Amino acid sequence: MNNIIQEIKAFFEKKAYGVCSYLGNKLGIQTSRIRLFFIYISFLTIGSPLIIYFIFAFWLNMKKYVKSKRGRVWDL
User: Is pTM, for the whole model, over 0.70?
Assistant: First the structure.
């Protein structure tokens, strides 16, 4: 049962925006602590960190898109 929960968690972490995991890997902090930080700060500031979260998500998505297209100069 625990294995199924871990697979579901990994699926959502991979398919979600990945902002917390990216920041956790870059800063060397656990992703759960970063998620809690976003949740607590969102409650205290009435949701303004969500705007920052979505900007990071957009930036990471565009970064993946640019990296995938970078090697294909001659493809049309």
Answer: no
